[in-house]
Q: What sequence folds into this?
């Protein structure tokens, strides 16, 4: 068996068939169980389909030769980039759905309609502003950086909880084995996930105005239902 096929077997999940060296891979052949690799097949990762958390890591026994002087950090970045692209945007940045608003404005129907008209004028004014003069909605949160294993591996999770970077202690990396590196990377990720807090959605001016308008509209509907003018 060639070194290349041996590496492929070590990178593939247990029980996977040995790939046919004469067969040209096709993009449609990809399956989730195949994981995500860097361009030079030095690193392969598997992530959970729902949480996107790293659950398995394998490095080629010849990862140093395969990288040809390029960094292992870049190889992991390529692998995680492939996983993130496959899954699309993170659910940690979803805007919360607006619940049905309870009416909390008192007054006659005329007063409520005047209030709605005032809100409409404010929306027109808001639309006329330059983008830099508008307070836009945003997400409030922080990256997570965890350094484990005596400083050997550092994992950085992005605002949405996805792996942004994996850094290594160069002195340790110079003699570390493939299995050892994979184990440390997985352990550091586990600790980083424990520290991650999803970002909080912070409404902007448009969202705040819309929320007030919905409450006024609910109050108008309630007033009309009672037949009070």
A:
């Amino acid at each position: 068996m060639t070194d290349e096929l041996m590496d492929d077997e070590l990178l593939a999940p247990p029980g996977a068939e040995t790939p046919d060296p004469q067969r040209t891979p096709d993009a449609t052949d990809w399956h989730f169980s195949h994981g995500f690799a860097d361009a030079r097949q030095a690193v392969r990762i598997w992530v959970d389909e729902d949480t996107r958390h790293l659950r398995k890591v394998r490095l080629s026994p010849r990862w140093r030769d395969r990288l040809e002087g390029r960094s292992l950090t870049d190889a992991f970045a390529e692998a995680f980039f492939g996983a993130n692209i496959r899954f699309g945007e993170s659910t940690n940045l979803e805007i919360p759905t607006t619940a049905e608003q309870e009416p909390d404005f008192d007054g006659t129907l005329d007063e409520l309609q005047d209030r709605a008209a005032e809100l409409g004028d404010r929306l027109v004014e808001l639309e006329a502003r330059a983008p830099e003069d508008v307070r836009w909605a945003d997400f409030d949160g922080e990256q997570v950086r965890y350094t484990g294993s005596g400083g050997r591996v550092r994992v950085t999770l992005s605002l949405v909880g996805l792996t942004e970077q994996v850094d290594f202690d160069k002195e340790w990396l110079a003699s570390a084995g493939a299995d050892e590196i994979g184990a440390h990377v997985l352990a550091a990720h586990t600790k980083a996930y424990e520290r991650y807090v999803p970002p909080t959605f912070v409404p902007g001016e448009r969202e705040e105005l819309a929320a007030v308008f919905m409450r006024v509209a609910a109050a108008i509907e309630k007033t009309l239902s009672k037949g009070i003018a």
In short: The longest strand covers residues 54-59.
